[in-house]
Amino acid sequence: MSPSQGLQLGRLKLLYQDFQQPNPPFIIHAANFDLEDRVSIVSDPHPPAEAIYTDSSHPEGKAGCAFCVIQNNVQIHQWTTTLSPHNTEFQAETLAIKKDINWASSKGISISIWSDSDSALRGIFCFKRSNPLIQETKQALLQHPSMQLNWIKALEGYLGNEVADNLDKQATKEGTHLHLQTPKCHLKKVLMNLSLNKWQQDWDLGDTGRAIFNVLPKAALTPASWLREFILFGPFPIYFYRFRFHHSDISTCGEKRDPIHNVTSCPMTLSYHFTKPSVENTQLLWKSVLSNKLSRINIVKLIAFLTENENLIK
Q1: Mean pLDDT (the chain, rounded)
Q2: Using only C-alpha atoms, what is the Rg of the chain?
Q3: What is the 8-class DSSP label of residue 18?
Q4: How far apart are CA 160 and CA 167, in angstroms?
Q5: Which side of the chain, N or C, has fewer Cβ within a 10 Å radius?
Q6: String of DSSP letters for 163-191
Q7: Would you say 99 and 67 are in contact if contact means Cβ atoms under 8 Å apart?
Q8: Which pLDDT score, from 0 to 100, does residue 216 have?
Q9: Which residue spans within the chain are E strands per DSSP?
Q10: 262-267, long-range: CB within 8 Å, 24+ apart, which pairs?
Q11: Which residues form the RNase H type-1 domain (predicted)?
């Protein structure tokens, strides 16, 4: 499939041109790359009387960014924009820095820029970054050697930072929309959600692993904190028979030796029994048992007994 056609995933269509692509390496001699000296990530408790402050917000699926110009404790200029929900706060903060560099250069003024985004500032002074927005911001900054970028701690009562914070929150509600390409991290998130949904559908409708499904009904990437004993996977004749280790799944007591039989009915495991539930309440009982520490210890002891006495239960 060509990039122009995109990729169709169910009702979702992904187009190549909608996603941010890495740029070639930044071509500049290392001796001319002075941004490490002009971008500071150490907070200065005394910002100058004239400065630009940037900020960004990403509340409840919205995104926005802004900058304001403060001169002698008076706001003399502001800029805001709204971004798409899939744009990241990193993109928003970098865009705001790029915009205020361009604004200052258009006015022909030398001014310091203050941002509370450590990640954006580190991305700008890092020599090897392929992010196109970062590269554009670097290029703008390198063309104006008198400008300085600084980090400022958020929520510390600085006038310019508070004004920028209010502006970017306002921008998420009523700002002019600006299009930025979707970052790859959003694509990864979309594909991950699609994969998890498909996995969950297969798990819900499958006809195997139902004993485990009763304990772990939700598909997830995080490891479950259950031992194998807690999902009733152990030395039961029904499993031995399934994998052809035993010639039959019938135990010495004459009944099919599935896990529920072992923990509720088998005379060989009487000391470890739980009350046998009705068929419709089996899952509820098992969840109740697993929520009790003493019951879990009892299950572990049962599995150990079956392992040590396998010859008695064949």
Answers
A1: 82
A2: 31
A3: G
A4: 11
A5: N
A6: HHHHHHHHHHHHPPB---PBPHHHHHHHH
A7: yes
A8: 78
A9: 7-9, 12-14, 39-40, 50-57, 63-71, 74-83, 112-115, 148-151
A10: 262/236, 262/302, 262/306, 263/232, 263/299, 263/302, 266/313
A11: 46-173
Q: How far apart are CA 183 and CA 186, in angstroms?
A: 6
Number of other CB atoms surrounding residue 61 within 10 Å: 9
Distance, CA of 64 to CA of 57 (rounded, Å): 5
Cα atoms in the Cβ-side hemisphere of radius 13 Å centred on 216: 17
Please give the torsion angle defined by the CA atoms of residues 136, 137, 142 and 146, in that order, rounded to the nearest 10 degrees: 150
Strands 148-151 and 112-115: parallel
Q: Between helices 132-142 and 89-107, what is the axis angle to 10°?
A: 20
- Is the model's pLDDT at 84 over the cut of 80? yes
- pLDDT score of 103: 93
pLDDT tens string 217-231: 889 888 766 666 666
Straight-line distance from the first to the last Cα atom of the chain, in angstroms, rounded to the nearest whole number: 57
Which amino acid appears at position 67 of this protein?
A: F
- Strand, coil or helix: 26: coil
Please tell me the total number of residues recorded for the chain in this structure. Answer: 314
Do the beta carbons of residue 223 and residue 291 sit within 8 Å?
no
Q: Which residues contact 11 (CB under 8 A, 6 or more apart)?
A: none
Is 62 a residue whose pLDDT tops 60? yes
pTM of the complete model: 0.70
Residue 277 predicted with pLDDT over 80: no
Name the most confidently modeled range: 76-80, 130-134, 172-176. Answer: 76-80
- In this prediction, residue 281 carries a pLDDT of 75
Distance, CA of 164 to CA of 52 (rounded, Å): 9
Domains of the chain: 10-187 (3.30.420.10), 207-312 (no CATH)
